[in-house]
## 1
Amino acid sequence: MLYQEQDPEAGRRRYVTDALDRFQFTQVAEEHCMHKNRALQLHADRFCRDVAEGCEAWLKSTKNDASKSAVLKRELNMTMPL
């Protein structure tokens, strides 16, 4: 069919929604990284801490790579809290 009355953006939005539906954030520490009702439950505090630690480790690893450091200095604008 040439025309199916479909919005290409709607398909992309549905894909993102479907992906996000597979994750649930919880405040119960015992429910970190467990599957329940076809979704991965993640403890919100621990997830954020894991992401922050991963970012810090990645930034530290780029210090020895001149090309990555140059791109970061040019593209990334970070401010550190006082």
## 2
Amino acid sequence: MLKRYVGIVLFVACASAFLFSNNLQANAANNNVVISQVQTRSLSGGSASDELIEIFNNSDVDVDVTDWCVEYGASGSFVATKSLACIKPTTVDVGNSVILPARSYILLISKSMNDVSPNLVADIVFASGISDSGRWVSIVNKSHEIIDLVEWSSTNSITAEGGKAAAVNLSTNLLQRKTINNQYLDTNNNFDDFEAGLQKEMYHVGSLYEVSDLCLNIDGIQGILPDMSYRDQTGNCYEIVDVCQNLEGVQSLIPDGYGADEYDNCYVDICLNLDGLQVTLPEQMEQAENGFCVYHDECLNLDGVQNIVPIGYKLVDSECKLDLSKLLITELLPSVDGSDEGNEFIEIYNPSDFEINLADYKLRVVSSSAKFYNFPTGIVIGAHQYLAFFNSQINFTLVNTTGSVEIWSLDDQLIDNMATYNDPAEDVSWALIDGVWQYTNRPTFGLANLPSVLLTQSSSTSELKPCGPNQYRNPETNRCKTIVSESTLVPCKTGQYRSEETNRCRNIVSDVVSYVPCAEGQERNPLTNRCRSIQAVLAATSLAPCKEGQERNPLTNRCRKIVTASDIPAAGYAVEKMLVGKSDDYVWWSLLAVGSISIVYAFWEWRIEAIRFCRKLKTLVVRSK
């Protein structure tokens, strides 16, 4: 009887462990057997397929490793890519088991390494194919529980023990478990437990041995049948006792569908899948058709059993979905004049009376294909607030031809969608205005949407908006300009008048030249504006003949003496020969001096006319502008 009770206690303990730890998270089923080394390639420059895995029994007791397997998978995925090797007995008789002794190793090497290293003998040879980065190797038992797992990667991963992968460069080193006091370290954290290492000079192999267990239901290996026991066809051993005192006959085994209480009475077990006898239905459970009792799970799609719908969720077709508030897509700009980078945007609106965190939402951009985008972390949209996201914030692309945008929850519920746009013009947004999707040439990212401003055009020319009553149209620019009122002009100073063309003040003296009146008996010369003698002018018409030896000066009409060669006095010295170059210089300097004097004299004589001409020229230049 004592053995039977011990067996029941052990069975309940194992079943509880299975119910609460049968998952592919970082925590292993136990820490007795561990992976001590992993090599993914030759460390001496040889084949990249020289692979090695070493396993160690880190406990002081022998461990049954029958049907245990070494599996291989990618970081972030709990599903194994392949099974590298499994430990099986040489014969498949019921009860045959493979045992790994305490403090003993199992060595597995790849076929490539086995071919090039004849002196390296292994317990198991497997096919090559282990990558240097972003992978994991695990040991699982026959129930597919994880015994140990090691992952190597440059980033953290949910599949690694402790959520942190071992940071070792396997292209130059192998992965080696740390030791403390000759005991392998196993903290269920790959980052803390492993370090870079090299191959051992000697590996221990051949420790595995096989036994035949006659009583599979009894702890330990039963090489012989226990006294007062019998073995059934499944390999289980039972005492020859009446396990159901309240039933007729001798029941060496509890009948199917029954369970025994502490007094060896057998009753119908209404929960065949639970340990022990369940005469009444346990709390928070319900009975299935097969006689199993299961927890009443409101959320079949969520991990674990949810007796009630969790806060923040809602029940939809026996599944618990996120209970999210409504968000609306209100505007987007697909086509931009110039570069689209950083200029395309998608606008959303919060119609509720409270702010909403966008952590549980995502965008879906639909064109010829569809792609999801997460919102930036930490973004909150206020009540009745518009919020625009540019493609510099979220790396989306809005095609210029046709497409649409949707808002989804993280658990794939459609929150909002919109009408599809088609071939929008540049800088024209697709906006929801008064409940209708339409194009507008007034994009308003982050603000309430505005309808387009329509421009009336004829077939060839545009109609210009009339200018205001105090404006006139500039004939060169077609723009309206304000008419300057004379009442706003500052009065001109004394001696000035206002130009009708420019409304500017001008000096009267600059336009009207006042001459000093000529003296009595004089008149003004129309050519030079100088005063001249009237008598001289009249006399010029009846001049008296010049005397003999005189001639009339054509400039002054006066008689002057005719100069002859005899009148020129002789020089008191001989004529000296002069250099041609020097005489030329004198001539040019003389001409320059005479010309300069003539220009100065002419300017002085005509200064009034020159000044007047310059002013008129300036007026013409100003008007032309």
